[in-house]
# Entry
Amino acid sequence: MLTAALDLLVENGDGLTMTAVARRASCSKETLYKWFGDRDGLLTATVQWQAAKVRMPQVDRSHLSAKALRLSMEQFARDLLTVIIGDVSVTLNRTAITHAAREKTGWG
# Structure
């Protein structure tokens, strides 16, 4: 369901609907509402899921060295950059900015 929501966001921007997600995910709208509450709950879950893709690599403490730490940090940096500059993160950030602007101006 989250993949379906993210794919639709990237394809269509902020016009995401629960109906479209249900169709894409081959599930019912009732299931979406049961799991996520509403559209905002679904969007929150997509952001959390996207953020969870960046994880700190495991470091073997028994063989800790400057080289091992550097390699781990480089891997973390590559993973982080891959996630934050990807289409999904850019779209999620645009959606968040749009929602914040609507709330601030009261036109949403």
The mean pLDDT is 86.
